[in-house]
Amino acid sequence: MADKAPSLRIIVNSLKEVVNAFVPSGKVMQIVDQKLPGLLGNLPSPYEEELKGIAAVTEIPLGEIIAYNIFYEFFTLCTSIITEDKEGHLLHGRNMDFGIFLGWNINNNTWVVTEQLKPLTVNLDFQRNNRTVFKASSFAGYVGTLTGFKPGLFSLTLNERFSMNGGYMGILEWILGKKDAMWIGFITRSVLENSTSYEEAKSILTKTKTLAPAYFILGGNQSGEGCVITRDRKVSLDVYELNPKQSRWYVVQTNYDRWRKPFFLDDRRTAAKICLNQTTQEKISFATIYDVLSTKPVLNKLTVFTALIDVTKGQLETYLRDCPDPCIGW
User: Among the ranges 25-34, 36-45, 241-250, which has the highest mean pLDDT value?
Assistant: First the structure.
């Protein structure tokens, strides 16, 4: 964090500017700085200790570090893909799209926060007793996990799900003292740290109450082990699984329920499916999944990075992305 502190200060200041643009009095940021840590109360260990450590090292107020972490509960637009080849080998890919409505730079046609997240992008190796427990692609200063895998066992990515009963309701309930749900970034990290199998991970992600609705995209280590879990805050609405016997050799998830049409200006799902069908199951690989995730509008102005995961081989590759014009804004 000492190394990334200057970049983190830049993005935190950008978020403050967005908030102050809506509430010019500065009172919202005053509440964030002075009262947010107290309002949220004790966060589960080790996240609270880590947040305090990040604040201490970067010399950024703890409330602003917490707010930076909360933003990921609201603004994460992503595309996640799990594929299975003819031999039953699974690959997991994702585009991390982040920063919509958080400031547009008219000079170079980019989202301000999207560009500021790129130098904060890190590959992390979580270890216990000098042995790797899991690996992740993340942003420095964020203590949850949105993209990760447990070598040899399973992979997991998290996409935001829009709902009227959204994450802001979960956070409000938390502030008011109802703390029986988990923060979505914390549950994914906990599963990656503690679960020992694909089935165990699927069970926890399906049953645990969460602060925000979400899509959990979970891949395993053998044929048929891949699914999209569509979550409301309190219940699972749908588990859509790979089924190679019925020619369902991939699953694709963006930010819309699979049984509903996506927003007409943001149909990344159809584009990804067309590309995968043209690629064919015989030719699926890191390179071809990267190509799918490089096709507009799957790749867009909000894309911070592309991550590729091979659980069986223990491989994680992360690439910072740019979408050259002409490129859709989200």
Answer: 241-250
